[in-house]
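Query protein
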Amino acid sequence: MHPLGLKDTVFTLSPEQKKRVATGYEEGRGISPFLSEKIYSIFIGSGGLYSTAKDMFTFLSFNIVKDMTSLNAILPIIQTSYHSFKEFDMGLGWKISSFPNRLKNFFHLSGTLFGFGMYMGMIPDQEIGVVVLMNNGDHDPEDLGKEILRILSTL
């Protein structure tokens, strides 16, 4: 994470970062309890990262704008399809899809966990990126994020 300067994208929060964690909510449970590092750590293998909007936009910018960094060589590797499913292809960390009646691919990922949800999507060829963050774990932000991305791609 450090070559891109993603100082707030971590598996384990520092005491200072813990002070800045948003409050998550779940229907029927209200405020989602802040999970101990020990319990939360079991999700590391499935993308259990903490991050900030700023770090997410920095990561998107790296993927979209392709500013010259020491990491540029990995972009074709992570933005390549390695397996096809019925509704999307899978790259390294990215779902790769296309909007109906369009040739351009878009890259996206999403998830919900313990009162939180996120969506990150991009169309590198158009230099468009979207991040949606929710502090409600009952709603998947993927549909909203895709629709924002689709609308932006037509402007």
Remarks:
- Strands lie at 25-26, 30-31, 83-84, 89-90, 95-98, 105-113, 116-123, 128-134.
- The longest strand covers residues 105-113.
- The radius of gyration is 16 Å.
